[in-house]
Amino acid sequence: MEYRFSDIFRYIKPSEIRSLLKYTSDPELISFGGGMPNPESFPIKEMKEILNDVIDNYGKKALQYGTTEGLDPLRDELAKYVEKTEGIRAKREEIILTTGSQQALYAIGKIFTNPGETVITEGPTYVGAISAFNSNKAEMIAIDLDDKGMDVDALEERIRNFMANGTKPKFIYVIPTFQNPAGTTMVLDRRKQLLEISKRYEIPIVEDNPYGQLRYDGDPVPSIKSMDDDGNVIYLGTFSKVMAPGLRLGYVIADRQIVEKINLVKQGLDLASDSLSEYIAYEYLKRGDIYRQIPKTVSLYRKKRDLMLKSIAEYFPEGVKYTKPNGGMFLWVSLDEKIDTTRMLERALKAKVAYVSGAAFYPHGEKHNSMRLNFTYSDDDKIVEGIKRLAYVINEEMEVVE
Amino acid sequence: MEYRFSDIFRYIKPSEIRSLLKYTSDPELISFGGGMPNPESFPIKEMKEILNDVIDNYGKKALQYGTTEGLDPLRDELAKYVEKTEGIRAKREEIILTTGSQQALYAIGKIFTNPGETVITEGPTYVGAISAFNSNKAEMIAIDLDDKGMDVDALEERIRNFMANGTKPKFIYVIPTFQNPAGTTMVLDRRKQLLEISKRYEIPIVEDNPYGQLRYDGDPVPSIKSMDDDGNVIYLGTFSKVMAPGLRLGYVIADRQIVEKINLVKQGLDLASDSLSEYIAYEYLKRGDIYRQIPKTVSLYRKKRDLMLKSIAEYFPEGVKYTKPNGGMFLWVSLDEKIDTTRMLERALKAKVAYVSGAAFYPHGEKHNSMRLNFTYSDDDKIVEGIKRLAYVINEEMEVVE
């Protein structure tokens, strides 16, 4: 039979990253493409202890439907965790668990945007956010970022233009710390300025902070949410990078009104998050395992970042630019403007190395000469070998375009 | 600050069932409201063994991001399971895991309906489906059901009316076996007729079958999907009622085109389901634990159904009608037409007994004198006591309305 699908498929397309996953079964391929944590960072031993205790102590509850907002004691532990790590003060009622941060992004798109309404993002920005906002048929405007984060002056000018036309973007989406994909961190002054802009124009900020605890050098910069006293900031956190991404658990911290709206939307999306995973996360926080695990992960990833940077310096052709992130999981590489990394990907896959091409991180694919490299997932020897292969591919491609 | 929310909140409202959950902390309240399995039905011992083996054997994979479509070996085991239990033949590529059946309902609404387009449901129908379809701004038309299931003649007439106006509903949503909330089962003839209608008018059927394995008496009726050879039926299953609902795992079996569309939408919704839960489900199927657990659950629930029916016969006033389901989790009680069960609920809560009022199960709240009673969750003594309280409440309400 012939199916009559909705028009949503004019807005969403297969994700390049997800499509790349099918190549991961090729053992020869070295992939810098995914955004996957290294399995060495998973607290397997602690997980086993926790799982046994959860089944023994809360078995029936951990297997039963939970509430849409998530387990109360987990939300209380989260309040302590974000206060300790990010200086954010939140009450239980201001926290809602989500099925990964992806669901939070989707729900936020849904509660704020009608089809065609505008959302501001950084350019480049997280591909999963593009997918979530596109799914809600939002229009995205990307504001360039540099090594100090989003260009907030350009942002304000853009907002003024909107206001002059009698309209306003619905929210401003940023990943201020160890940005995905750029690896850059927004400096404190700009964070303050962004918050001022949010207040002045009454446009909420969505602060996505999956990587904040993965700092390898430099001093922490306060989260925007920690400076927010008027409910301007909607904060997104996740267990994916500090526990395990297979347990699909993220959270939103925001004004109660927003939490209630997300709750209502989540009832239609999946009723509630995975109870067992919520109990695991609760114990992981309560026991303090998280505070012992993060430094191990940081130490593992710092070495990998250093190794990738060193290999790039050694093998990449001159003139290639790349970020040197103080944390997170990604480097952002910018090639000669003549190069289209989407087209180059085919060549790379033949050379058995993968990345995500830069265009995927722009709402309208507007820039073509960049790529995102993940440095956390691959084994050390593969990092070196993969960068060698990529250097070869770039050199080849440059010969073609010149 | 003042938030500018989208117009979605004109379409979705807080669910009465979810709202009732807040009363569950009152130990005096006897709730027939939720759709929760009895925790006695959870395979706790088996879960503990499985969890330990999963961590030992697949720890790193079970904690890592999974693919959007779900674990390949789980999909293969599911193919065997649905063939054995429901006579459905499916290839791996025709199966996609979802974060509970709720996500499947949401995604199906999303891939098929543009705002204002029509979906046909049974009347009454599952409240979570109403919520999922409303979230996609679909228009719902409920076709009455009787003790033989949906009135398929009325359905065909309705479709003809649509066609006469140059339009067509996008799909037909049914819960043919042990319907939620009515407890009725669609007879074989009507299933065949429904499939014929689907073929004739090229309108897909969404067959939701969460309770199919919970049969307490009578002979199994073939699933509609088992009779489908043209991709007319989109089949929804779940682990919630045969393993544990806290592990948010459902699945869709459908034509590859549909599975691919759901995959694309799911990437925006939550990237992938919970990996740990997928590994647990895989082992639960592979070991055959599921085939040992279902008969235990059936035996537990059969007694509870019998007890509730007996108590109703004993205590409810004459003239009250109710279904006598051969399986599933719910009874549907119809009171005097003058009674509005939504209004009566306040009186019931004062008497410390809860139900879900019938209006919640109609897309436009069109009928007011019914209620859904869950018989699986409560302890036996509470079933008797709760029915006594409810009888008292009904008698009181009847005095008021007369």
UniProtKB/TrEMBL annotation, chains A, B:
Species of origin reads Thermoplasma acidophilum (strain ATCC 25905 / DSM 1728 / JCM 9062 / NBRC 15155 / AMRC-C165)
Entry's family note: Belongs to the class-I pyridoxal-phosphate-dependent aminotransferase family.
The record's SUPFAM superfamilies line, in alphabetical order, gives:
PLP-dependent transferases
Listed GO MF terms: pyridoxal phosphate binding; transaminase activity
**Which residues belong to any copy of the Aminotransferase class I/classII large domain?**
47-388
| Gene Ontology BP annotations | alpha-amino acid metabolic process
Q: Which residues cross the membrane?
A: none
| Keyword annotations of the record | Aminotransferase, Pyridoxal phosphate, Transferase
Annotated protein name in UniProt: Aspartate aminotransferase related protein
Please give the cofactor(s) recorded in the UniProt entry for this protein.
pyridoxal 5'-phosphate
InterPro entries named among the record's database cross-references: Aminotransferase_I/II_large, Class-I_PLP-dep_aminotransf, PyrdxlP-dep_Trfase, PyrdxlP-dep_Trfase_major, PyrdxlP-dep_Trfase_small
Q: Does the keyword Signal apply?
A: no
* Subunit composition and interactions: Homodimer.
